[in-house]
Give the backbone structure.
Amino acid sequence: MWDLYLKGNDGVAIKTTYENLLCSIKDLRYKIFSGKVQYIDFQKEMISHSVYDTLFYKRKSYQHENELRLVIVASRIHAWKLQKLFEIQGISANQWQKRMDILEKRSYDFSHEHGNLLTCNLHQLINEIYVSPRSAQSCVDEVKALAKKHGLAYKKVTQSDLYRDYIY
């Protein structure tokens, strides 16, 4: 994958878990759907039970990616989650709908020219950080310095040894 998706020598890959990925996203303006991508032949297998199924389809030629996909939908406030949060925060029930309406309205505002950027809890998201096997030591050092700067010094930063020759 380093060769497929990295344009130069320097790059990083983040190791996480499915649970950590979902739990790291705290933005309550959106509802998040997740699923394993289905790699299909669009000429023969394009059968769907719902419109959401099609969001998890990809051409069979990409099957090597073994991808998990998140679909984040604006204005689909997760009312039950919000109500539980409001209860914990001590917000009175007569304020819930007003707050949900505000969040829903904000969910339509794009934060970036290509869509929305979502914040996530990096401490929750990141298990380990891998640096490209072709990166120079200075890049590895820079990634470690960035991790430290953002309070992630305790996370393991490792240079991938994918291209290292081993003597058997």
In short: The mean pLDDT is 87.
